[in-house]
Request: fold
Amino acid sequence: MAPQTVDVHVASFTELDVRTFHDLLRLRIDVFVVEQRCPYPELDGRDVEPGTRHLWLAHDGIVRAYLRLLADPGGVVRIGRVVVAPAARGGGLAGRLMTEALRLVDDRPCVLEAQAHLAGFYAGHGFTVTGPEYVEDGIPHLPMRRGGASSPKD
Reply:
């Protein structure tokens, strides 16, 4: 699938219809909980916060990639739940998703918790490692930041 054939969508929780929210959650659960075998509470309450923005790419009405932007204290934006559907991987969608997200973030400081094997991908989008590697749900992660001062402690 060529990236130019993909539609970009951005919405707050209140702007999401039930079917779309279902499809976004299904992709997140299919990849993070099932594929990566990380049983964790996917519904953490942050999806419904007023400052959260859901960003996804769809082709023919099917969600192919997703992330969420969270409003953290101090004007920091947190990128999380970055995911590409298995059938859509290798087509540049992750890069397009990050480009769209960073366009929305603009010049605000931005943080994320990268799976360690993806640190180079995020570095290509201007993120730098801000702390030591740690293991979450059996997967090595690295805290990363783009813009602004050092990341506040979570």
